[in-house]
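Page 47, continued from p. 46.
Same chain as before, 172 aa.
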Amino acid sequence: MKFWVTLEGHDAEVEFQTEGGQLWLEVEGRRIEADFQRLPDGEVYSLLVNGRSHEVRVSPAPGRLDVTLRSRTLPVEVRHPLEKMLLQARPAETTSGETLLAPMPGVVVAIRVKPGDVVEPGQAVAVVEAMKMQNELVAKHGGVVTEVLAAERANVAAGQALIRMRATEPPA
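Result:
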């Protein structure tokens, strides 16, 4: 499975595969293989890479994952490569509205708004679960919800429109 990952301002396409207790990552032509075990709390993984043991915590955060390794936490954005293509093909954003898209294929866990709700920039509006990780989707610009296009427990595709908003009118 391929993902588009942003880490410390650097974008890369990452191919990710697991089978049993094996993990393979391919990043910019470099292949990393590891034995891995998910620990009971569900967020911590024990990895064995080139004979060295590593404990990695992967925690969902709004619009990203927080990955902690050796007491250092890094925010990592993980998206489907289709989203990158859609963003590049999209005309320049206007302030007339905003459409929130599913960042990757998954299941809608929660819709936190309804038509007519006023949404502030940065406000969480939906949660999509993919690969047992919940991704909280937030509004970039905010506005008034005009359409909710997906229902809770619905399967969604990468890039599928979930919520549409129109810009709020500036005060007169």
